[in-house]
Amino acid sequence: MLQNKANPTISKSTGLPRKRFYRARAHSNPLSDSHFPVPLSPSHVDYSLHYPQLFPSSDCSDGSKKIEFADIGCGFGGLLISLSTLFPETLMIGMELRDKVTEYVKERILGLRLANPSQFQNVSVVRTNSMKYIPNYFEKGQLSKMFFLFPDPHFKEKNHRRRVISPHLLDEYAYVLKVGGIIYTITDVEELGEWMKSCLQNHPMFEPLSEMELDGDPVVKLLSTATEEGKKVARNGGQTFQAVYRRITLASQENS
Amino acid sequence: MEGAQMEDFRIEDCENDNNTHEDSQMEESEQNNKHMEVAPAVISVHPTRNSVAVAVGSDLRVFNLLEDCAVILVDEAGGASHNDSIRGIKYGANGKLFVSAGDDKLVKVWSTESWRCIATVCSEKRVSAVAISNDGLHVCFADKFGVVWVVDLPGVDETQAPLNKKAVPLLAHYCSIITSLEFSPDGHFIVSADRDFKIRVTVFPKKPLDGAHEVQSFCLGHTEFVSCLAFICTPDSPQGSLVSGGGDSTLVQRWSRSLGRISFLQALVVVYLEDYYGW
Question: Catalytic center at which residues (chain A) (predicted)?
Answer without folding.
Answer: 152
